């Protein structure tokens, strides 16, 4: 039991009994090396895919930010145009009201003169 605990402790600390390593090499030898090579290859592929995905995410974020900025600018421009159109209409209506008021004043003065002369 104590020996098994010692071996477990050595494995946890990263050092391995040389005899145990030799036995593993004899039993598993080439297979372990192939598995290690395959795992390293898979790990490398995963890292590359992770980098590619992160780059795509970054590009999407940039594209979305650009789209948001463009939409905001378009909205601001359209809002400014609508405000100007509303102001122009209000100005035109005010001018028409003033002209109609002046016409009404002139007509009332004319009616008053006609009433006075009759």
Task: Give an overview of the whole structure.
The chain has a domain at 19-91. The chain contains two helices and no strands. It has helices spanning 2-13, 18-117. Residues 1-12 have low confidence and may be disordered.
Average pLDDT figure: 87
Instruction: State the share of residues found in helices, binned by percent.
Output: over 70%
Report the sheet with the most strands, covering strand number, pairing sense and barrel closure.
Answer: none
Q: What oligomeric state best describes the polypeptide chains here?
A: single chain
Strand content: under 5%
How are the secondary structure elements laid out?
Blueprint: H1 2-13, H2 18-117
Summarize the structure.
With 118 residues, the chain is an all-alpha fold.
List keywords for this structure.
single chain; disordered N terminus; rod-shaped; mainly alpha; 118 residues; 2 helices
